[in-house]
């Protein structure tokens, strides 16, 4: 079995929500690393969202973990995949919609608090929420 087949098999074994979030983060980082997208077009800014109608910022800030494939990015991906996968396979086994709503609720609460706390990228916060989700099991 080749390396690419092993990677493909591993990706297919990852639960759907975790896989989608991981691939979104990888693609966002790749786009920033290749200068296809600027992080300045991704960050959370309530003024730009509601006055300039840049609604994509409500989602893209959760997928940005740094502008390059650095050690920091690798650690974020490790924790994101480990804890998100663990939650999805254990606490939310067979309840994919419930897991989606768990993430949606957490992301909504973070989005509401972000302007007051001056947070611009919420991906790390969402990963930390999943770590707390594991601790609460």
Task: Write structural notes for this entry.
It is built from 7 helices and no strands. By secondary structure, the chain is an all-alpha fold. The longest helix has 22 residues, at 96-117. The mean pLDDT is 92.
Summarize the structure in short:
This protein has 137 residues and is mostly helical.
SSE topology:
Blueprint: H1 3-13, H2 16-33, H3 46-51, H4 57-60, H5 71-91, H6 96-117, H7 123-135
Helix pairs in contact: 2-5, 5-7, 6-7
Looking at how many chains there are and whether they match, the oligomeric state comes to single chain
Tell me the overall shape: globular
Structural class: mainly alpha
Rg of Cα set: 16 Å
Helix share of residues? 55-70%
Q: Please summarize the sheet with the most strands.
A: none
Can you tell me the residue ranges where pLDDT is under 50 for at least 5 consecutive residues?
none
Overall mean pLDDT: 92
Quote the beta fraction. Answer: under 5%
Measured distance between first and last alpha carbons? 37 Å
Number of helices: 7
Instruction: Tell me how many strands there are.
Output: 0
Order of helices and strands: HHHHHHH
What key attributes describe this structure?
single chain; 137 residues
């Amino acid at each position: 079995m080749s390396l690419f087949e092993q990677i493909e098999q591993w990706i297919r074994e990852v639960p759907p929500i975790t896989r989608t979030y991981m691939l979104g983060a990888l693609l966002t980082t790749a786009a920033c690393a290749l200068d296809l997208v600027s992080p300045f077009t991704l960050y959370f800014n309530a003024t730009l969202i509601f006055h300039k109608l840049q609604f994509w910022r409500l989602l893209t800030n959760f997928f940005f973990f740094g502008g390059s494939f650095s050690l920091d990015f690798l650690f974020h991906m490790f924790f994101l995949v480990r804890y998100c996968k663990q939650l999805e396979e254990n606490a939310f086994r067979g309840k994919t919609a419930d897991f989606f709503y768990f993430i949606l609720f957490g992301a909504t609460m973070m989005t509401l608090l972000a302007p007051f706390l001056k947070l611009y990228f919420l991906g790390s916060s969402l990963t930390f929420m999943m770590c707390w989700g594991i601790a609460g099991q």
